Every structure is written in structure tokens, then in C-alpha cells.
């Protein structure tokens, strides 16, 4: 590489090591380290900048435009996922409601099946007819016993009270003035 006109020296300006007085060893190594670290950092920044600038050159976009495009892509993905997710959650809640309804209907069917099995017995049918319909077999004499607590108390007015007339207040007023 030296043949092409570049000096092989690492020092800037293409100068070779000069015969200047030497610095103390500690000071020189510390400065060299900071220079090397600075160069490495610049080199890293330069590489990432060249990568970014290379992508920007290829796409022809600046950083702001790339951020806007990324935001649009993220929003599009969010909207693309939002509708199916909402549909999934709605269907899932509907499915739990339908499963509860199915369980209730199955319990009701089981009750009706049990009741049907009871009514297949002729003795049960006869007992139901006697109890609910007050049927009697031919030759039997039915008796109805009413206990005082079974009878609803009739709201009969006392002899000194007049019965209340149902109707609107103006009808009662008219009947009171008419003397009925």
C-alpha cells in the first residue's frame, strides 16, 4: 500500500516517527487508549451510519420518513389483528352463554324424562287423578272436609258498616249526592 502514495505510518499527516522528546510511558499509553477507544467508537458509528445511509439510499427515505412508514406498518398490523381478535372474543363469550343454556335445557329434559317415567305407572296416574282432579272410583263416596284455617276469610262488612263501593271518586260522589 505504501507504493500507492500512502505512508504506512499510523500518525496523521503522513509523518514518520519524529525524533521529538519522548513522553512518560504512562501518559502515552493512556492517551493512546483514549485515542483507540475514540477511533473504535467513531468506526462503529461510521459503520452503523453507513448501513443506515445505505438503506436510506436504497429506499430513498430519510429517518423521519422511515419512522412514518414503520408507524403505518405497525398500525396496519394492529388493525389487521384487531378485527379477528374482536370476533374471536365475541364468539367465545357467545359460546359460553350457549353452553350454559344447553346445560339448563339438558337439566330440564332430564326432569321431564323423570316425570314421564313416573306417569307410566298406573298407580301414579290414579293418585294424580284423585289428588288434582278429585276423581273417585265407582262405588266410593267422596267427602270434602274443610277446616276453618283452610277457608279464606271473607271480607264481609260488619252490619253497622256500609260496603265500600268500587269505582272512581267522582262516581262515588255522584252516588252520594244522588242518594243511592
TrEMBL record:
Stretches for region Disordered: 1-49
Biased composition (Basic residues): 36-45
Presence of keyword Coiled coil: yes
Segments forming a coiled coil: 95-122
Pfam families named among the record's database cross-references: DivIC (PF04977)
InterPro entries: FtsL/DivIC
Name of the molecule in the record: Cell division protein FtsB
Amino acid at each position: 500500500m505504501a507504493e500507492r502514495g500512502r505512508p504506512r505510518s499510523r500518525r496523521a499527516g503522513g509523518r514518520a516517527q519524529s525524533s521529538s522528546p519522548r513522553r512518560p510511558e504512562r501518559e502515552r499509553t493512556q492517551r493512546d487508549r483514549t485515542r483507540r477507544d475514540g477511533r473504535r467508537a467513531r468506526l462503529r458509528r461510521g459503520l452503523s451510519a453507513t448501513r443506515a445511509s445505505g438503506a436510506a439510499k436504497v429506499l430513498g427515505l430519510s429517518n423521519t420518513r422511515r419512522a412514518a412508514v414503520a408507524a403505518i406498518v405497525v398500525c396496519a398490523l394492529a388493525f389487521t389483528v384487531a378485527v379477528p381478535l374482536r370476533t374471536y372474543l365475541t364468539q367465545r363469550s357467545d359460546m359460553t352463554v350457549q353452553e350454559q343454556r344447553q346445560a339448563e335445557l339438558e337439566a330440564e329434559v332430564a326432569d321431564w324424562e323423570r316425570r314421564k317415567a313416573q306417569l307410566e305407572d298406573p298407580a301414579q296416574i290414579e293418585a294424580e287423578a284423585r289428588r288434582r282432579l278429585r276423581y273417585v272410583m265407582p262405588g266410593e263416596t267422596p267427602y270434602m272436609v274443610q277446616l276453618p284455617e283452610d277457608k279464606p276469610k271473607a271480607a264481609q262488612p260488619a252490619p253497622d258498616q256500609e260496603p265500600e263501593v268500587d269505582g272512581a271518586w267522582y262516581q262515588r260522589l255522584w252516588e252520594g249526592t244522588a242518594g243511592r
